[in-house]
Structures are given as structure tokens and as C-alpha cells.
Amino acid sequence: MAVAEPAPKKHYIVVESGDLEQPFRWSAGTYGSKFLTEIRDNKKIWGIKCPSCGRVYVPLRSVCGPCYVKLDELVPVSDEGSVVTFSVVSFGFVDPSTGQQRPVPYGYAAIALDGADSYLLHFIDETDPAKIKPGDRVKAVFEDDDKRTGSLLDIKYFELQR
Amino acid sequence: MMAATRVGVVGVGMTVQRSTRRDVTGIELINEAVRAALADAGIKRKDIDAIVIGNMDHFEGINYVDTWSVDGSGALGKPIMKMTTGGTTGSTVAMGAYYHVASGMFDRVLAIGWEKNSESDTTGAIITAFDPFWDRPTFAGAVAGLALEATLYMNETGATEEDAAYIAVRDRRHALNNPYAHLRMDAKVEDIMATPYLSWPIKLGDMCPRTDGACAVLFASEGAVDEFPNPPAWVHGVADRHLWAYTSDPYVNQKVVGGTWFPAMERATAELYEKVGITDALKQFDVAELYLPYSFAGLRYMESLGFCERGGGPALVHSGATDMGGECPVNPSGGVMSSNAIGATGLLRVAEAALQVQSRAGDRQVPGAALALATGFGGCYWSDELVLGKEKPDKVRG
Questions:
Q1: How far is CA B314 from CA B164, B208, B296, in A?
Q2: Predicted pLDDT of residue B15
Q3: I need a labelling partner for A128 at 20 to 30 A (CA). Which of A30, A54, A97, B37 fits?
């Protein structure tokens, strides 16, 4: 069975959206604000604990999905943890937050912070997959004091503890 | 009084799936699939009672597809509902159309899924589907998210990159039988292994392409199926689960949900198989059209779909059971590894499953196929699943 092939793309006009920007301003909410304020001002990581099942969540959230109860107990979580799984990102793509290509390659991991039951996805300081394995210990490296803005990227990356 | 009714797929239309369709706008692409579906079902626009349509807005920057495309979709003056659930959009649209008809409120409902992935940076657009300040700063879209799953899978089972490459080879070889498919190639495992890494351990050859394409599928009530020239492909049952919020959540399997690997798929599968009476997926399904967005999915998801034991994916696929001619061929169409116009992709799985049980799949037909599984995958490891059959089910099973 044959299908009709479209004509070559050179025959058609492409209309560019141009360099327009539509910036957004997102409320971080009560707990997101607490988390971001604490990493900015004190380089401290906080989790939130479910009164029903006892799980400690990072990222913070105001509801435990499985228990469907409201959360309000903030608990300190370590800035150290272990790699659960990882990748090394090496393909180019547009970071929609900046409109620019995100620099590659970079190490990327799901990190189980000590004291938390959920994971945080963040950068790690290794780009050779042969030198990373699940279970490896990592520690957060924070931005310099004058560069922290109240963003998840106030944690620059997690450093493998060798 | 309206009552729940059994539902059959009675018409299928699809566009060719290609990397770039500059010859058409999104509206025109939609229209191409709709016209094909109407022609296939032998009916006119006026006979359609309602339309369910979906895509992922951020790929085209078109946020109002239901209204914007009303001329092309044929929805002018008719009930229309937009459904968007990420990668599962196409399968959710199918389930939405099914629910419309099964409820007894509509007799002929057209499901439409489409995407023009050529119109933006796919990874950049996917990132905007996730949480603005928890996820986006470090997330690198589907490729990197799936790479985390692949690493975990290899670490837990000993599966290899070569095992995964087999899936890329299989599906694109199957696509040689499907003139609509985007990537059609007779590659070898070593060819896939020689492609560059995108996000270790995923290589270019392990990943689905980005595609422009559309699909439309007509669902009809039990009382209306005889109006159409095609034999109905009956919907035997559907199930879906959406479990996760943040991109890091799916890897929490062991701690949060008690040892399961892919809880959304495993829970949807348990519900669906209970409803439909599936106790041995490999034996009972004649064919499966699965949303496998990358090669490793063709190993791991077979385990969560009950085709083999945990860790048994590589042995299953190397046995040939999922090849054309095997016990349950997977993706005779070439699947997602060959074509991924994201909003159309889940619906194409349903369309292909319907064509199989109607014995209308042309060169990609599995001889005698009577029961088919179709799935959708997306978001934070979400899962939609549908069973279609040649035989009319004995009752409405949800």
C-alpha cells in the first residue's frame, strides 16, 4: 500500500514567534517559600512530614497524596544523601527558563537525602557514568552567599563523596 | 432512559507520520485525519454526535485547540471536549470518546489526537509541563527522566544496553510494513549501539523520534455499529492510573508504594485484567500496541503488563515472542519508536489495535488477531490501558 508523501518543506513559509517572551510569576506558597528562604538564608534543607504515614517529603508539598491529609510539620533534612539512580545528560536542548541551551554534559541524579522518604532530582559533579553508581554518597554544594536568590539552584549541585 | 452500552471502534483515519509537515497547519493536519476517518467509516460530518480532541498545548504554543481547529475537526456546532494528559493524551482522548458513547448519551463520537512536534524544541516544551520551581530548574525532559529509569532497571536486573537495543531494532523493522510510520529501517543491534548518547544510558537510537501527525478514531454505540461498513472492534475494558506529582516521585517506588516497580501501570493492569479476564497476557493477547517511548520500556513494561516475571523482559523479547510471527507480536505498526507525534501517539495505539482485530491492518496484520492490548504512557509515569476485541463482550465492563 502506498501513501501520498507531503511536498518538500522548502516550498512552505515558516512564521517565527521571534524573541518574544511571556514571563510568569509563580507563588511558591507557604512551604515552598519556607524551603527556598531556608536554602537562601541558611543553606538548610527542610522536609515536610505526614502525620498519618510518617513519610517525609522533599520537594515539600501541602498534601500527602496517598493519605490525602494536610501536612504542616516541617522537619530538618540533611544536605547529604545517596544516589538512587542517575544519568549523564549530553544532548542539547532549550531550557525554557532561560530560552538558551542548557550547558551539557552534566550529571543528573535522583537523590535520597538523609531523613527524607522522597527524592530530589538535581545535578551531580560527575559526567563519567562509569564513575557513578546507585548508593554513592553525595553532599549539597551551595551557591556563594551573595549569589543565592531563593531558587532550587541555590544548591549548585551535589558533590560525590569519594 | 439512557443506559450504559457496549462500544465499538468503526472507523480509523491517520495521516502519514513524518518529521516535518510544513505543507499543513495544525488545523489542516487534523482535517486530514478526520476526513480519512469519515471516509473509512462511510459517513459525513453531520452524522458525528460529539468530538473529543487532544494535543499538548506547549508543543505548538496553541492553547485553545478545541476552538482554533473547529473547522478542521468538524466540531462546528457540535459538543466538543478537549483532553490533555501529557504523553497519555491520545489514549485519554480514546477513553474519553469511549466514556461518551458507553454512557448512552452519544452514539457516534470522534476521538482526535494530533501534534506538530516540528514546531518547537520538544524537550524544552516538555519541561514546561512540570512544576515551575521544584522540577524545571534541573529537569531535562523525557529523555533524561527515562534515562533514570533505564539506569535503575539495569542496576536491578542486570539487563544491558544491547537488550534494549533489540527493541529499537524490532519496532523499526516492524515499521517497514507500515507506510504511515516515520522511522522505517532494517537496523541491527550494533547500529543502535553505535549511535551517540543523549543521556546515558539512552542513545539516539534508543529514543522515539519527534513527529508531525494526526489520528482520528470513530467510536459507536452497540445500537449504531451496524450503520458502518467495517466490523466493530469492540472495547472490552479500559483502566488508567495517574499517580505522581513531581519528576522525582516515580523513583520512590520501593519506599512509597511497597515494592512495586511501576505502580501506575501495575495497578491499571491489575484492574483491567480483572475486568476483562486476563490471567496469561502472553497467551491471551494476540497482539499488543504499546506506548514504548524508548527502547528500555520494551523490556521493563512487559514485566509491569504481566507478560513475564520481573526481570524477565530481556529473555522474553530475545525468544522472539514479541516479533511478528511470535506468540504476541508487539507493535506491528512500528510503535512509538518509529513515530511519535505525541498527542496522536496513544490514539494511534488504539487505532492500530482496532485495525488488527478487524483484520484490516494490511501488511502489518497479525493473522487471526482477535484480542489486542493498547496502552498510553506519559507524564510522571502515568498509564492508560485498553483492550479491544473482535468478539462482542458479554456486558459493559467499564
A1: 8, 19, 10
A2: 98
A3: A97
